[in-house]
Write a structure and sequence with these properties.
Helix content is 47%, strand content 7%. The chain has 20 helices and twelve strands. Strand 9 and strand 10 form a beta hairpin. Helix 9 packs parallel to helix 14. This is SusD family protein. Belongs to the SusD family.
Length: 504
């Protein structure tokens, strides 16, 4: 019987006998059979859930690398003029199933490994019944049951998140909710069914069972508010392309976002740049869910080298540069000063402006504080990979409430202005014209989440690719085939006998 490619059961669930810390770095792994055979112990189950976060990271060239490359399909970044740079295929909206194969193979395996691990944990973790004869015993039993529910909810969160990435990148995908199905051939299931039968139900369960303060106490594990942030993002996407469910789902996204705003007690971190400082990443601040990169714990990022220019004193890889045309539209202020590097020291001891640099592009500086502000000597760096922030919630409410009703309410206007105020821009948006406000909010999402893997998905759900990628879209594979999907890996297509997305 054919098997679903790239899914590996043996590395999906983590367990260690070390002390129970609450970071994302389990040191060893057990198989599915071993997990199902162990005596239930909440600390071991929690560590098993922690393994899902390392699966999401998936190595130096995993999530952090592949999602940044995917986001290069948008308009914020450009590639280095290095010879034979295959990233250009993605930038020009002509993704290649062969030349870009590492992007598809790695991301496909990345998310399916998380799903397989989550399926095992969900199916193999029974919630203990409430027991005890005294009030104290019953209370203790209830607390234990709640912890079990919460850790299963973490697995549901991770399964939903992984499916959410897969449907946005690849369209119709297999419907797999238990481990026995995961190793067998499965047909592709319609995007709408994946949302309605897996993603949304998982997140509703996660919202009900996750605590308001995450298990770790910060963003390395999801809280109820992180689950609601993801759910609101899901509803927002369902409202747009490809499902186009419109106002009803914009209203759902606004409702969930407003719940977070009114009841979470969260707030924006006062200084934008503090969000990426290594010394502050474990504070319970604006980050709702993130990958916490660590060299010492072998879950490093390569953000420093990837974003350093080639003629920088530390000799960068120049994987990504800032798009100077987009930078020119970016409003002046403290946020822009933090996000961009427009001059830098070279190995010769001189300082060069970006226009006169070797490659002639400005740099994105957001991910360069991971060695306490000093350029790294090594490709391996610490730091944080943000997935959801409270700023996301504010801007989603502003956008969704307006699109649902055609009206700009006071809360929506305040959400946008709070983001702009922190950014240090000279002029705040004051319009209550629905169309003008929508344009301002959409632009602000781009500025706020520069190089955070969100821009491409925003352009797609709002069908704005042709507007913001006007140089490449008219002659693109995506226009020719009337979709915004990437190719499913060729190995998977051959194994399962599927037809790939049109054009690949």
């Amino acid at each position: 019987m054919k098997k679903l490619a790239y899914i590996t059961l043996g590395c999906c669930i983590a367990l260690t006998t070390a002390c129970v810390d609450l970071d994302q770095y389990p040191k060893s792994f057990i198989t599915e059979e071993e997990y199902n055979g162990i005596e239930q112990d909440i600390s071991k189950v929690e560590l098993a859930a922690t393994g899902l976060y390392k699966n999401l990271w998936n190595g130096n060239y995993g999530f952090c690398c592949r999602m940044m490359r995917i986001d290069c399909a948008a308009d914020q970044m450009v590639s280095s003029p290095k010879p034979n740079n295959v990233l250009d295929y993605i930038i020009q909206l002509n993704p290649s199933i062969s030349s870009n194969t590492a992007d598809w193979d790695t991301s496909w395996a990345n998310f399916w490994n998380v799903i397989t691990g989550a399926n095992t944990l969900i199916a193999g973790t029974p919630i203990p019944e409430i027991s005890g004869t005294t009030a104290a015993e019953k209370e203790a039993s209830e607390k234990t049951a709640k912890r079990y529910k919460a850790v299963v909810a973490e697995a549901r969160f991770m399964r939903a998140l992984s499916y959410f990435y897969l449907v946005r990148m690849y369209g119709d995908i297999p419907y797999v909710t238990n481990s026995s199905e995961a190793i067998e051939y499965q047909p592709r299931t319609a995007v709408a069914d994946i949302y309605n039968k897996i993603i949304v139900p998982d997140l509703i369960e996660a919202c009900a069972s996750l605590p308001t303060v995450s298990r770790s106490g910060f963003s390395s594990t999801p809280s109820q508010w992180a689950a609601k942030a993801l759910l609101s993002d899901v509803y927002m996407t369902m409202a747009g392309w490809p499902l186009k469910l419109g106002k009803e789902y914009y209203a759902k996204a606004a409702e969930v976002s407003l719940d977070i705003i009114e009841h979470s007690g969260l707030s924006l971190t006062p200084v934008y740049g503090d969000l990426w400082k290594e010394a502050k990443k474990e504070e319970a601040n604006e980050h709702l869910f993130a990958i916490h990169n660590s060299v010492a714990n072998k879950v490093a990022s390569q953000y420093g080298k990837s974003f350093y220019p080639r003629d920088y004193v530390k000799a960068g890889w120049a994987d990504y540069y800032a798009n100077p045309d987009y930078m020119a539209t970016y409003p002046e202020g403290a946020r822009k000063e933090f996000n961009y590097m427009t001059e830098w020291p070279t190995a010769t001891g001189t300082t060069v402006k970006w226009q006169d640099s070797q490659d002639g592009y400005p740099c994105i500086a957001k991910y360069q504080d991971y060695n306490q502000g000093v350029a790294g000597n090594s490709a391996q760096s610490n730091g944080i990979t943000p997935i959801y922030r409270y700023a996301d919630v504010l801007l989603r409410y502003a956008e969704a409430s307006n699109l649902a009703t055609g009206n700009v309410n006071a809360t929506a206007l305040k959400c946008l202005q709070d983001i702009q105020t922190r950014a240090g821009v000279s002029t705040l948006t004051t319009t209550t014209n629905s169309e003008e406000f929508d344009k301002a909010v959409f632009a602000e999402r781009g500025y706020e989440f520069l190089a955070e893997y969100k821009r491409w998905f925003d352009l797609v759900r709002r069908e704005k690719v042709s507007e913001f990628k006007s140089k490449y879209y008219p002659s693109s594979l995506m226009k020719a085939n009337s979709h915004y999907y990437f190719p499913i890996p060729s190995t998977q297509i051959k194994l399962a006998g599927w037809t790939n997305n049109a054009g690949y």
